[in-house]
Amino acid sequence: MKIFVTSFALLASLGAAQAEPVTYNVDPEHTWVIYEVLHFGTSTNRGRFGVKQGTVQIDRAAKSGKADITADTTAPQTGVPALDAQLRSGNFFSANEFPTGKFVADKFEFDGDKVSSLAGQLTLRGKTHPVTLKALRFNCYQNPILKREVCGGDFETTVKRSLWGISFGLEFFSDDARLLVQVEAIRQ
Amino acid sequence: MKSLVLASALLATVAGAHAETSTYAVDPTHTFAFWEIGHFGTSTNRGRFPVKEGAVQFDRAGKAGKAEITIDTAAPNSGVGALDKHLASKDFFNAADFPTAKFVAEKFSFNGDKVAEATGTLTLLGKTNPVTLKASNFNCYQNPMLKREVCGGDFETTITRSQWGMNWGLNYGFPDNVRLLVQVEAIKQ
To answer: What is the mean pLDDT of each run of 10 residues along chain B (189 residues)?
Structure first.
């Protein structure tokens, strides 16, 4: 695996002049947005949203990239059906009116040949605010089942949900929501 | 809230000689066991198990406690149906033969009046090994809907699954280490 990445990086630097961005499609079985909010200042309530579609372009030689990921706000999964219904409702994500949330990143930062952060815009309930996702880990590998290169990692940020107008229940769910994003994307 | 905790701590100190153990029943809508395991050294696969039942006994003045929490191994939830089936199968949790996992804590350590660690045993696949859960959050509050005291927090540990005989995929490079994150809230009885 390491040998693969190294030889790829070597190849990329040899061909630097004509380095091209590579496109990856997000794998919805290994891509989830998990939120964490504090419940009554006591324990952490977690839930996940699935991803409808997503593409990532990475130009490892030029150290640049783009990502466009659409999450499905109509199907939150907390393990508690009544809470899922609350989250879909007008009190939280208004999923009828806004069935998706979107993260568009146009600035990738690299640490060596690994992506270290993604800066872009998060749109929820029709409101857009800047967000930077930090990589906790990033890696590319040759997936033995798909027989393709897969790049991905874990990314995180903490947002204030009230910025997007999600202000219901601030007395029992914290305004700070930690977002943990698992991403794996398959080379096209 | 803080004044309630302080007042009850004060009361407990004053009444030190006959400090009492309170029993709390686990609230299954705010109690889940989450796992985190690395996927091809790249990203983290996460999921949760629901709790079937659980009771916590807790003596804040005496700084002692006990907990017994039963997890439903037949209902892993990763968001991916095929993975959930695989996890419930003989390759992993063997839910047909072992429909529950159990954490029993016999020793609570405290930091001030907050629980800092719960030490006990985890039984999985019929095997029992010692485990210590560390608290990253702990608090008690008066729940305005239930009109009862609720105590809870977030606890975590990292286990090596092979200790319980859960070896599937180790030879393909799937990690032995699994991080467990346990959200618990329990209602005073």
So the answer is: 50 51 96 98 98 94 94 98 98 98 97 95 98 97 96 98 97 94 98
Probe site for chain B from A43, A56, A140, A176 (most B CB atoms < 10 A): A43
Write down the domain spans for chain A.
Answer: 2-187
Residues of B in contact with A44 (CB under 8 A): 137, 154, 181, 183
Residue B121 pairs in a beta bridge with B104, B130
Within a domain: B10: no
**Nearest CA distance, A182 vs chain B (angstrom):** 6
- The closest CB to that of B43, out of A38, A46, A153, belongs to A153
pLDDT tens-place string over residues A49-81: 999 999 999 998 899 999 999 999 999 999 999
Domain limits for position B161: 20-188
pLDDT at B60 (0 to 100): 85
- Note the pLDDT tens digit of each residue in B26-63: 999 999 999 999 999 999 999 999 999 999 999 888 89
CATH numeric code, A2-187:
2.40.128.110
Q: Tell me, yes or no, whether B11 lies in a domain.
A: no
Full DSSP string of A96-134: TT--EEEEEEEEEEEETTEEEEEEEEEEETTEEEEEEEE
Structural domain total, chain B: 1
* Pair of tokens at residue A9: 């990086």
Distance CA A34, CA B78 (A): 11
- Residue in chain A lying closest to B139 (CA): A42
Indicate yes or no: CB of A46 within 8 angstroms of CB of B48. yes
Complex ipTM value: 0.88
How many angstroms away from the CA of A155 is the closest CA of chain B? 9
Q: Smallest CA–CA separation between A20 and chain B, in Å?
A: 23
Is B31 part of a structural domain of the chain? yes
Query: Between chains, do B42 and A184 touch, taking CB under 8 Å as contact?
Result: yes
Residue A4 sits at the vertex; the CA angle it makes with B80 and A9, to the nearest 5 degrees, is 110
**Residue B84 three-state SS:** helix
- The C-alpha atoms of residue B139 and residue B1 are separated, in whole angstroms, by 10
Whichever domain contains B83, its CATH number is 2.40.128.110
